[in-house]
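Renewal narrative, Specific Aim 1. Our central claim is that a sequence can be written position by position from structural information alone. The example that follows is taken directly from our test logs and has not been curated for this report. It begins with the structure tokens describing the chain, in the order in which they were read.
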């Protein structure tokens, strides 16, 4: 996703990206990037793990967000996700201590369908 008027790089160290805020095009805060899930077969980053909700990290719900659904606004150091807060609240999430099997293709298809992206394994 390209965001008008933003400078976007496509290769960066993950340590520079973890902790970055995520907003939507309406500038609503959607949370922050907690981690990344790597597809070890292809070497690509399959999902960014977004934490949303809760207070001071307690009660956060985690979401796997396909990388194709995110754009990085380098000037503001925020990721942009084209989804409303209400829609994100209805997304399938998980607890930080109970991650789903991200290699499960049906689970992945559901995630990609929700965010309107093509599954990363179909791009190989």
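The sequence written for that structure reads:
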């Amino acid at each position: 996703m390209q965001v008008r008027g933003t400078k976007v790089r496509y290769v960066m160290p993950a340590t520079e990206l973890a902790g970055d805020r995520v907003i939507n095009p309406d500038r609503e805060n959607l949370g922050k990037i907690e981690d990344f899930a790597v597809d070890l077969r292809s070497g690509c980053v399959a999902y960014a793990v977004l934490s949303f909700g809760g207070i001071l990290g307690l009660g956060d719900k985690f979401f796997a967000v396909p990388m194709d659904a995110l754009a990085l606004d380098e000037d503001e150091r925020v990721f942009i996700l084209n989804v409303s807060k209400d829609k994100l609240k209805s997304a399938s999430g998980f607890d930080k201590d109970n991650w789903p099997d991200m290699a499960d293709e049906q689970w992945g298809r559901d995630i990609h369908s929700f965010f309107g992206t093509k599954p990363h394994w179909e791009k190989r």
